[in-house]
Structures are given as structure tokens and as C-alpha cells.
Amino acid sequence: VLIAKIARLRIIERIPTPYLTHRAFFCGREFYVDSRVIVPRSPIGELIENGFDPYLDREPQRILDMCTGSGCIAIAMALHFDGEAEVDAVDIDPEALEVCNINIGAYDLENVVTPIKSDLFNDLPKGDKYDLIVANPPYVDRYDLDNMPQEYRSEPDAALGSGDDGLDCARRILADAADFLKDDGILVMEVGNSEEHLVDAFPMVPFHFVDLKKGGSGVFVLSKEQLQAYHQLFADSVKRNEHVNGEN
């Protein structure tokens, strides 16, 4: 009976299998998931498996996982670096952080991974500095969000959509990330299909998009120095975007 019910939900209602089994896999690890978080599928996993080589000069001591959701990226990073790096897992959604906490507990990483409720950087202590900031924010543009397959409609909209061009969150992260990076720190961010929108919005910024061997796209790397060099550009873009959103 249970198998038949799962099959009906999967086939007829197009509920993602991980929501039915509460099991998803990322970086070769199993994670608990439910409809409070998106299903793990980020190509950032390939970078984690490679230790962010060649972008990090040394193993990080402090890592920030922005928009952590289920915590899979934060936990995979903590495990890759053998618990030697402190990882802060940030999300604005307290329900997502509940799922994150389940997964932290499953891997006994309570002393390594710290879940933090914050609207991006807004509620983080000023002066906190990280060797590595990894961000997988909502990045689906309005058109793609409106035309998503039924399967993705089971996932929380707030974790997917990010304004007309999919860059509302990305702009804010770009504007603020430098303040939270050590001098040799880097930002790694996924913008997926909104890569084209990003390049169009900031044509002069030398985004380094990673050549992903296992599939996926739209993951870029910027150094703190680069983020600082274009800070005013990013900040001005945030202000313009907020003004436009305020008018709509």
C-alpha cells in the first residue's frame, strides 16, 4: 500500500522522489530532505570534491555557506576538510534551518557546522571574516519560474525565484561579500541559467565561470580584490534594483 501511494504521488502529482523518501544524495552523502528545502543538485559539489582547487591557496579555516537550505553544501565542505574548518550555514528561513539541523546532527557536526538565521549578510556580526564564501542563492528568473515543470513546483518558491532576471539575491551578495572575506578569500557563487543575465548586467566584471566536468553551469569565482574593485558597481545595481522593485 505504501509503495502504491508513493508511486501515485510520484507519477500523478509529480512529487519529487526525495520528498517521498526523505532521502537525497549530494557529494556521495545521504541527506534528509522534505518540502521545506529544495532537493540538493548543485554542481558546486564538484568543486567541494576537488577541495576548491585551484582557487584556494590553502585549506580554509572558516567557511560561510550562504543560503544553506538543507545544509548539504555546508556539511559536505565540513566533511571534505575533515572537520578542521568552521562552517557557518546561513539561511533566512527558520524552517529550512530545521532541516539543516537534522542533517548536522546526523553527521555529528554540531561543533563544526553552525546554522545561523540571517537575511543574507544583514544579521551576521560585523568583522566576521571567512576564507571561503559559497553561495547558492535563489536565481531562477521570473519567466523560468512561471514555466517550470510540475516537479519543481513542489519546491519552495522562495528558494528558487529571485526577481525578473533571477539576480535579486546575487546582487546583494556581490555588494557585501568583500566585507566578510579575508584578504586572500574567495567567493564561489552559483547563478545557474541566470549566468547570461549576470554577464549582461555586469559586462565589465571578469567573472571566472568554472568549467564543470560533471555537468551544470553558472558557477563563478571572484576574489576579494575583484569584489572590492567593483563594489560600487554592485552597490549601485542593488539600489537601482530596489527602486525598480519598489515601483512595481
What does this entry look like structurally?
With 248 residues, the protein is of the alpha/beta class. The chain has a single domain, classed as Rossmann fold (3-Layer(aba) Sandwich). The strands form two sheets. The chain has a seven-stranded mixed beta sheet with strand order 5-4-3-6-7-9-8. It has a two-stranded antiparallel sheet with strand order 1-2. Strand 1 and strand 2 form a beta hairpin. The longest helix has 17 residues. Helix 7 packs antiparallel against helix 10. The mean pLDDT is 87. The chain is built from ten helices and nine strands. It is globular, with a radius of gyration of 18 Å.
Q: From the coordinates shown, what is the CATH architecture?
A: 3-Layer(aba) Sandwich
Major sheet: arrangement of strands = 5-4-3-6-7-9-8
In whole angstroms, how far apart are the ends?
49 Å
Cα-based radius of gyration, to the nearest Å: 18 Å
Global morphology: globular
CATH superfamily: Vaccinia Virus protein VP39
Structural class, from secondary structure content? alpha/beta
Number of helical elements: 10
Topology:
Layout: H1 2-11, H2 17-21, E1 24-26, E2 29-31, H3 44-49, E3 62-66, H4 72-80, E4 86-91, H5 94-106, E5 113-117, E6 130-135, H6 142-146, H7 168-176, E7 181-190, H8 195-201, E8 208-209, E9 219-223, H9 224-229, H10 231-247
Parallel strand pairs: 3-4, 3-6, 4-5, 6-7
Antiparallel strand pairs: 1-2, 7-9, 8-9
Helix pairs in contact: 7-10
